[in-house]
Design brief:
61 residues, 3 helices
Length: 61
């Protein structure tokens, strides 16, 4: 799975603050180099690792 796909998966699964999502989006609009995308992925993973974000709550059906 590519780094951008992993980022998409994390965003789908976790409830990141809008400021974090806006920042990542802006950075990826400016540069799509794979190593830079991987750096952004590590940032999101660290947000999870340090407990700054939580899993999204499931919607009631």
């Amino acid at each position: 799975m590519s780094a951008i796909d992993k980022i998409s998966s994390l965003i789908y699964k976790y409830d990141f603050p809008s400021a974090v999502l806006n920042d990542i989006n802006h950075r990826l609009e400016c540069c799509r180099d794979e190593s830079y995308v991987e750096q952004q992925l590590r940032y999101l993973e660290n947000q999870i690792k340090f407990g700054n974000v939580h899993l999204k709550k499931e919607e009631s059906k």
